């Protein structure tokens, strides 16, 4: 992984500062690197020492890398950063031509591009000034006083109103989010010493081994199983910015092992239905979404929700909706096709799924009313109707999943529909 290039590391006590800046670059590239890991890395280098580049690489690798998908990003940031880390400004200036070469000449793999953007991010935000001719002993200070308030503002900011930098930070926040779900109790049972139901068959079998004497009662409980999550995401022109953020969130959910979902199935639709489930299994989010975008040829096109739902119900419904699947529909409901067909397909979807949750970015408006024919056709066939225009609304999905009685804005929307 590491190139056999001698490290140019200063011997004037700046190695610690360079490790701190290296950790900062890793954090901007998406690795979960905090102050604790940074201190561990500094202590590990002091304790282990190194005589060549490979030793230094693997020492830092052991401290900063905890998941397989982080290895490629770490290797690229290490390669770019430790060429000349004497001063951060000088390093940025030296790396600028090399990073451009990576992006332009070789097409830039996802991990390389993220590493380059993480390092170049410091140029835009400004780096500590290093006066020429001085020994460079000034202490490096990082002001994080506005971090909490900045993230809170970002949580409630509409995806469509975000700048490029804000969207990049929002994607990093989405990558850390999870969507836990409660298990479903099956009608099948399993032996459980603490179970609430007596298992008479097991009790009698045990008694036969003891000459017909019952020494203890066997117990059992209903088996727990985890449902599937099926996501249908609208990628038409009116949903472009929201669908990209939703897919980042969906990638984090599908790659999080502790969320409890049996499997996450993802489909995009605009003028046609596309299954992107296998692409989201790719660990690197940039590579995953690039592959999904290449397969879905109807990005930012028209919307034919009814036709796409018909294709889903016919080709995929029995495969992915079994055993109590939860369906998440992400669309604004602006249908260009037949609203009657849309109503029929939504009814069929609702009858096949355990629960249907609809995320609609149009709910961000206080004066929202279900006037569009597509919204009128879909609304009666969903269990929960919620907004999906910012990070806070996506985090609120956990509430809808935990409480089966949660209807979101459905009651108010149906009352407006009846009044209209």
Spatial strand sequence of the major β-sheet? 6-5-4-7-8-9
Low-confidence stretches: 1-12, 84-108, 122-148
CATH class descriptor name of the largest domain: Alpha Beta
Major β-sheet annotation: 6 strands, mixed
CATH superfamily of the largest domain: von Willebrand factor, type A domain
Mind explaining what this structure looks like?
Helix content is 48%, strand content 11%. It has 420 residues and is of the alpha/beta class. The chain folds into three domains: 15-127, no CATH class; 189-225, no CATH class; 229-419, von Willebrand factor, type A domain (Rossmann fold, 3-Layer(aba) Sandwich). The strands form two sheets. Strands 6-5-4-7-8-9 form a six-stranded mixed β-sheet. A three-stranded antiparallel β-sheet has the order 1-3-2. The chain is flat.
